[in-house]
Every structure is written in structure tokens, then in C-alpha cells.
Amino acid sequence: MSKMIGEAIPVRLRKTSWRVLAVAALFAGAGLAASSAIAAQARQFSADIVTRQDDVPAPAGRLRVLDGKVRIETTENQDGFFLVDTEKPSAYLVRPGARLYMEARQSSRLTRLFVPVDADAPCRQWQAMARLAGVVAEGEWRCERTGEETIDGHSTVAFRALSAEGQEFFGWIDRERRFPLQIRTEDGVLFKLERIKDESLPESSFELPAGYRKFSPEALIERIKQSDVWVAKPGEDKPGEAKPREAKPGGGSP
User: Fold this and answer.
1) Cα separation of 100 and 80, whole Å?
2) Which of 128, 180, 212, 223 is deepest in the core (most CB within 10 A)?
3) Across the chain, where does the E strand assignment appear?
4) What percent of the chain has pLDDT over 70?
5) Is the pLDDT of residue 249 over 80?
6) pLDDT of amino acid 230
């Protein structure tokens, strides 16, 4: 009897040890997953946008990044700011003074260029934002890796991007942040991020303010067409207005 008990104890100990190891491995895996999730969510930073043409620098604005969302404030639109979400995707121009927002479209090329990208294949995100802005034709963009470069202490991968229409620009992607640090456009203008600061940013800064209404230029045009203000072009009927029927030859009624 004592021999059986003595043999059973090591077996139970072995089973218990395996269970302890399994639980420890489970918690370790959960810890690694949590660490990975935190690392993925920690891609938050702000920076100044500076342009340089013919070696003459000029301020262009400021941006803030929180994961796949970007807030851009430009010197060209001082009465508003842009909110970009690459996951939806969406790009809005917000005007606090009028308490409204609208589709950004082609209001600023910065909303199409300074977005989170794949550091190994950035063309997919650039093309998606160009398509959202309505400036893309049929066909796929191509990105050609041209080398690596250190910019202000940041390691980047350089790409030559070619659109379906044949237009090209160059981008330098920060691998750590998965974000362009420099963009050189086809017309020779260089956009560069400077004074980059890794910091925690409030999510509310990247959301549309509550109570703002969406402005639609198309809807406004349609309302104008329905009003007495609209002047139809020659041969164009005013909406809601019936076209007069032609009389039959001989002056008789139709």
C-alpha cells in the first residue's frame, strides 16, 4: 500500500508541474500580446511641417498622429484643420468658426501624402487616399525602393512612387513610426517633418466635434437650382420646370 502511494505522489507532482507550466506559459503569452498591443498603440507623435523650394524654407503647418489617424493644421487653412482616418478611409476639413465639416477632397495634398503607410510598400495607402480625394485614374501605383537614409537621426527607407497617370514623387518613410518624414513632389517642393515629439495625444483631437453639421457643395448646388436664383444655360431646363411642347404644323393644338 505504501509502495502504491509512493508511486502515485510523483505522478501527481508531474501533472501539477505541467499544469503550472501551462498556466505560466499562458500568462506569459498574454503578457507578450499585451506588450505588442501597447507598442502598436504607442505610435503617437506631433511635428512641424516645413516646405523647402530652391533651398528656401517656409512653415507649412503642423500635424499630430495617433495610430491610423492624423490631424493636420496648415498655414493655407488657418480657419480650420484636417482630420484623416486611413482605416475608414476618410478625410475632412473642419471649420470651427462655422461649426461645420466637409469632405477634404483636393483642399490640400498633405492629406494624401502624410498618412501612416506600410514601410515596405507605401503605395497602397497613398493610392487609397488619392482615390478618396478624386485624383486617381484607373490602374495601380508602383513604389520603387531607392535606398536608405538617416534624416535628423531617424532611419528612413526612400521610395520613388509612380501613379497610374505617370506622375511621380519621392517619399522617405520612418520605419519606426511607419510614417513619411519627407516628401518631394514632382514640381520640386520638399515637405519635411521637423521637431518631431513622441507624446501622448488625446483621442478627442482626432474626432469630429459634436454638434457640427456636414456641408455638402453638391447639396447646396441642388438647393440653388430649385430656387429662383439659378439661371439655366441655353438649352438647359430648370429643375422642376416642364419643357413646353411644340405645336403641330398648321397651328392646331397637339
Assistant:
1) 10
2) 180
3) 44-53, 56-66, 69-74, 81-85, 90-95, 100-103, 142-151, 154-162, 168-174, 179-184, 190-198, 213-214
4) 68
5) no
6) 54
Peptide bond into 89 cis (omega under 30): yes
Kindly give, in sequence order, each residue whose CB lies less than 8 Å from that of residue 242, ignoring residues fewer than 6 positions away.
Answer: none
Would you call 181 helix, strand, or coil by DSSP?
A: strand
With beta carbons less than 8 A apart as the criterion, state whether 67 and 96 touch.
no
Q: Look at residue 72 and tell me whether its pLDDT is greater than 70.
A: yes
pTM score, whole prediction: 0.71
| 226: pLDDT strictly greater than 70 | no
Q: Which amino acid is at 139?
A: G
State the greatest distance between any 2 C-alpha atoms of the chain, in Å, as a whole number.
127
Q: Where are the alpha helices (DSSP H) in the chain?
A: 2-41, 110-113, 123-133, 217-225
Rounded to an integer, what distance in angstroms lies between the CA atom of residue 81 and that of residue 94?
5
Closest by Cα among 132, 143, 147, 149 to 169:
143
| Nearest Cα residue to 50 out of 66, 74, 67, 71 | 74
Q: What number of other Cβ atoms are within 10 A of residue 113's Cβ?
A: 18
